[in-house]
Amino acid sequence: MNLTVFGATGGIGQEVVRQALAAGHRVTAVVRDPARFEVTGTGLEVFRADLTAPEAVRPAVAGRDAVLSGLGARSRKDAGVATRLTRTVLRAMEAEGVRRVLVVSAAPVGPEPEDDGLLDRGMRGIVSSLLKDIYADLREMEDELARSGTDWTSVRPPRLQNKPLTGSYRVVVGGFPRRGRFIARADVAHAMLGMIDDPGTAKEGVGVAY
Fold first, then answer.
1. Are strands 66-69 and 2-6 parallel, antiparallel or unpaired?
2. How many CB atoms sit inside 10 A of residue 198's CB?
3. DSSP alpha helices (H): ranges in the chain?
4. Could you give the C-alpha distances from 210 to 64, 166, 170, 204, in angstroms and in order?
5. Which of 77, 78, 124, 158 is the most buried (most CB within 10 A)?
6. Per the structure, how many domains does the chain have?
7. What range does the domain containing 31 cover?
8. CA dist 136 to 76, 78, 143, 151, Å?
9. pTM of the predicted model, to two decimals?
10. Could you say which residues of the chain have pLDDT below 50?
């Protein structure tokens, strides 16, 4: 497949690029600063863009089979960036007739498992309170996806870890795995790539966790 990856310098974005190249896909990695992008490989194109306008990124998505995005705030002061940049990506996709898009969101944006224990609910409440601006941004981003004409999937992981790929994790379409507390960025990337051709994840939020 021909794929475009936004947020390619981030932890999940770089993993998406690496794994996609290893699987034989052609990948366009959209970055603001190529000097920060360390991935190399056959089938890779590095596209420099600052995502200020859809016209600037239309060439990066034209003719692609799917777009994958790891765009999002790195801290509370960046809250709002996920919605703003994803809106630009969606407009470019719609202009080029590209429909499939998968983005990284977060577990607290989706529904809680009904049978989660008090500890998990309490911890989720604390985290949601501390990062409420970031999660508000992600909810607005998901609203943008829902209003778009794309076949979107919002992937919602819990706390992220920098650990090796396992390929073993739980996936819940429209919900979240019970007591799902952690997942490696590499496994989030793996899950996203595996969902590209899965029609059951289109127009859905998907919880992923160990």
1. parallel
2. 14
3. 11-22, 54-61, 81-96, 118-130, 132-147, 185-195
4. 31, 10, 6, 20
5. 158
6. 1
7. 2-209
8. 11, 12, 11, 22
9. 0.91
10. none
